[in-house]
Amino acid sequence: MEEILRQFCPLASGDVSLSVLGQGNINDTWLVRSSDRAFVLQRLNSQVFPNPHLIMANLATFSRHLLEKGSPCGQRWENSSLLPTRSGAPFYTDWQGDTWRAISYIDGTITHQAISTSAQARQVGWALGHFHHLLADLPAEKLHDTLPGFHVLPRYLESFDQVLRQAATKRSVDLRFCLDFVAARRAEADLLERARRQGKITVQVVHGDPKAANILFDTTTDLAVSLIDLDTVGPGLLLSDIGDCLRSCCNVHGEESEDAAAVEFDLEMCRAILAGYFSEAETLLLEHERDLIFHAVRLIAFELGLRFLTDYLAGSTYFKVSHTEENLHRALVQFHLVQSIEGQERGIKEIVSDVRRCPD
Ligand code: GN1
Ligand code: MG
Predict the structure, then answer these.
(1) What is the pLDDT of residues 3-14, one digit of tens each?
(2) CATH number corresponding to 2-105
(3) Ligand 1 and 26: CB distance under 6 A
């Protein structure tokens, strides 16, 4: 680690403290503190992100854009940026071929693994809307697609089918539930993709992973300060981001809930998030796109469950796990969330039309 730290700052040993930051499913992250500086150090998962130079190029492009736009927005707002190595490179490759990079640390902030109040939920929506608003005039083709097929549900179904054909996993009760769940819903899975192909929905620069834990809140005011984890920022659908944010933040039990059957989609959180979003990004979404919000949240929860399930069947090589059944349990949590979303279709659609008429 000393060798790696030396790439980013001239530290004498003993002068520095390292602590694990966050609970990401993909990369490894630490907070590095010394007497005169603090920064975030990350080891990128090279299996998930095999082209680190494209990610760093994207980071540089949209960071420049955000810096140029930096107009006041009525509350504290900061964007993290890439810190080059001491020799001026955007990242460091170690002797094992792993990629390391440093990112600025936004002090005086915390993350919430799950959202617990509607004030926080409103802030979540505002922050996502603000992020979309800031990036709305950055042409999507200026960014590389770092994860081809990301959030393309029919592609995930194809790889699920392929993995399932080869899997020799014992069919437990939970696994059978998940397989039946997928079989019953796969026919309508290409709804958003079809609309995208027909040019009916907006492709612009999106975050790609706006889950609860990727939003920084000010430690004192509990107001949103930043969206972090920017590796998936790139061309995508506003509806995927909105859906993913609702999927994560309206599940107040959290993604790692022990009791999958107790997981629910919380309508009051949904109302507060959408009100916050539309207060900041009213004009970005077309009228008929708003009508698709219910499907966007339903489908992205289904997609994440399917991704966890596929990874479970493939031997958990994508998402980090601490035990062999973890990805199956995560899939169950998402599928129970889908059921709760489906059961509240009317309520969710009513909220969408309420907040569109009166975002405040
Ligand atoms: C992964 O980076 P991290 O761990 O926050 C995943 C997201 C999922 C999320 C679920 C690149 O995000 O798509 O929604 O786990 N990121 C990637 O927690 O696959
Ligand atoms: Mg991520």
Answers:
(1) 899 898 876 656
(2) 3.30.200.20
(3) yes
